[in-house]
Amino acid sequence: MKSYLSLFLFVIIAAMLFYSCDDLVYSPKEKNYVNVPVPDVKMSINLDPVSDTLYVSGTVDLKYKINISGGTFSKAILYIDAVKVGESTNFEKYPAFHSEKFSNGKHIMRLEVWARTYSGSLADKLGSEFLVCSRSFYIFTDNHDAI
User: Fold this and answer.
1) Which of 41, 57, 75, 85 could connect to 70 by a Cys-Cys bridge, CB 3.0–4.6 Å?
2) Is residue 137 a contact partner of residue 47, using CB atoms and an 8 Å limit?
C-alpha cells in the first residue's frame, strides 16, 4: 500500500512539474514559413548540327547547344543505354562518346544538364537544389574497320 501511495505522489509531482515547465518549451510567436517562388528557369538542349539520329565510329566529340535562362550551368552527364559514360562540369566541354566501348547497332544517348536555380529555398542555400533537363537521341555505332 505504501508503494502505491509513493507512486501516486510521484505521478502527481511529475505532472505538476511538466505542467509548470511550459515556459521552457520554445513556441514561436510568428509563423516562420515562407513561400518560395517557383524558379523561372528555362532550359533547352540541341545537337549542333541539329539531328535526332547520329551515326558514329570511333571517338566523337559531340557538340551541344544548351540554353539556360534564369539559372547557371552546374554539370552535364552523358548516358548511353541508361549507363553513365561521362560527366563534365565545364560548360564549354562536354563528355565525349567512345563508340568502341559499345556494340554495333542502335543505342539511346541521353544528355542530362543540371543547373542551379537560385530560388532562395533552404535546399538552394545548401547547394543541393538543381533543375535537371534531359534530351535523348538515337545513336548508331559502326565499329567495323573501313575496307
Assistant:
1) 41
2) yes
